[in-house]
């Protein structure tokens, strides 16, 4: 069983930017994630294919924006892990999760642990928050903490929040849309002429099926396929199209996305010079059940104005990309800023609490002195009496 002042559920961009700032301030923090590694929606995949060797690609965000100076500073500090594209977007190398691995340095991390329940023990002064996991069909206590942070998509936070908690109804305002993603390895003799700028190949807002196409194999430091010469083309489906097909078979989705890619072949040829042939050599398909948040749940519910929420009574806090939407931020940047703003709020709260306890200690000390002063007060009482 683990113990920390702050336990963070979720080691994506939001959870880890929060944990990093808390750790830097000397706060004991533990970050837990159900996946094998960090990154969340910045996750990448590395597969060993018999015919083509190692294929590595991002399944989540391939590139992202930075408008806020503190996020830009973080990207600058990440050095050669981050590259700026000519369209102003940024891309992490050799994969997007390089960003979360950077943030995770030195942080107490427990991966591969799915929290199934949380509980607040009101009458327990020390470490009132408990998290639980399932182990061989049995529920086990996994951690206890003073503060608990849910740094997950809102639907996953909803599943954990206790039934009668006010967050529960606030979450009614949010929907995180699903998204299918297929990565095709295609033969193409332009493979060695493409540059990093072609990562972000095309946006296709007019297509009802495809949202965006990126070229994964052009990312810096990517291991080139050992055999064969081709390009990894990542196709992100439109969220509404994905929503209507959430339970489809991966193979059916891959075929539909390939057909849709084939239809925009002229656009690809025109924009990046990519001339795909009639069949992919390899395909990997993934469903993100929660990909793109649609509403800033808590600000709409009138409960919070900021990028995070620090629960006033029970120290149950929220952060994540969805909280940035009301501020015109989105995606990776929103997640980062939500985490760092919650860190600041928590640090200030702790400082406030320790100042309060210093004040009350002083008051205690003064009160002892005031015992004497109190005597003087008696004199004031006398004055009062004199006033009568
Ligand atoms: C296909 C795709 C394309 C995208 N494209 C872009 C883009 O172009 N630009 C952009 O800015 N953004 C993009 N995004 C969005 C961006 O990736 C996310 O906004 C950002 O990574 C969210 O970070 P987060 O920390 O808020 O949440 P997440 O990354 O979702 O992290 C939450 C973590 O919580 C963990 N978790 C959940 N429940 C539990 C539990 N019960 N126990 C333990 N762990 C749990 C999850 O495993 C996950 O690691 C894209 C996302 C996807 C999927």
Automatic annotation (TrEMBL):
Matches recorded under Pfam families: Amino_oxidase (PF01593), NAD_binding_8 (PF13450)
Comp. bias intervals (Gly residues): 371-388
Highest taxon of the lineage: Bacteria
Region Disordered, annotated ranges: 354-388
Domain Amine oxidase: 97-346
Biased segments, Low complexity type: 361-370
InterPro entries in UniProt: Amino_oxidase (IPR002937), FAD/NAD-bd_sf (IPR036188)
Name of the protein: NAD(P)/FAD-dependent oxidoreductase
Species in which this protein is naturally found: Litoribrevibacter euphylliae
């Amino acid at each position: 069983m683990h113990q920390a002042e702050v336990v963070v559920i979720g080691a994506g961009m939001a959870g880890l930017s929060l944990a990093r700032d808390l750790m830097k301030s000397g706060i004991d923090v533990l970050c837990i994630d159900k996946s094998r590694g960090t990154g969340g929606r910045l996750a990448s995949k590395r597969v060993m294919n018999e015919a083509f060797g190692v294929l590595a690609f991002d399944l989540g965000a391939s590139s992202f924006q930075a408008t806020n100076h503190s996020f830009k500073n973080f990207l600058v500090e990440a050095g050669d892990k981050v590259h700026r594209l000519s369209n102003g977007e940024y891309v992490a190398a050799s994969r997007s999760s390089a960003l979360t691995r950077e943030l995770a340095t030195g942080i107490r991390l427990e991966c591969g642990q799915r929290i199934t329940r949380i509980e607040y023990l009101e009458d327990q002064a020390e470490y009132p928050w408990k998290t639980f996991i399932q182990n061989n069909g049995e529920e086990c206590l996994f951690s206890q903490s003073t503060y608990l942070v849910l740094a997950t998509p809102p639907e996953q936070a909803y599943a954990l929040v206790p039934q009668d908690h006010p967050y529960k109804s606030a979450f009614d305002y949010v929907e995180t849309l699903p998204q299918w993603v297929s990565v095709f390895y295609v033969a193409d003799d332009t493979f060695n002429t493409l540059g990093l700028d072609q990562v972000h190949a095309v946006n296709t807002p007019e297509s009802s099926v495809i949202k965006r196409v990126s070229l994964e194999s052009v990312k810096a430091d990517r291991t080139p396929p050992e055999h064969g010469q081709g390009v990894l083309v990542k196709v992100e489906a439109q969220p509404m199209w994905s929503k209507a097909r959430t339970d489809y078979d991966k193979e059916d989705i891959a075929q539909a996305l390939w057909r849709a890619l084939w239809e925009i072949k002229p656009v690809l040829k025109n924009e990046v010079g990519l001339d795909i042939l009639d069949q992919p050599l390899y395909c990997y398909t993934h469903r993100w059940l929660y990909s793109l948040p649609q509403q800033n749940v808590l600000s709409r519910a009138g409960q919070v104005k900021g990028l995070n929420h620090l629960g006033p009574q029970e120290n149950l806090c929220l952060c994540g990309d969805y909280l940035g939407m009301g501020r015109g931020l989105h995606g990776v940047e929103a997640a980062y800023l939500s985490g760092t703003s919650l860190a600041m709020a928590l640090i200030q709260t702790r400082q406030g609490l320790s100042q309060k306890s210093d004040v009350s200690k002083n008051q205690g000390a003064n009160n002892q002195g005031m015992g004497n002063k109190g005597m003087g007060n008696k004199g004031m009482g006398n004055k009062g009496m004199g006033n009568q």
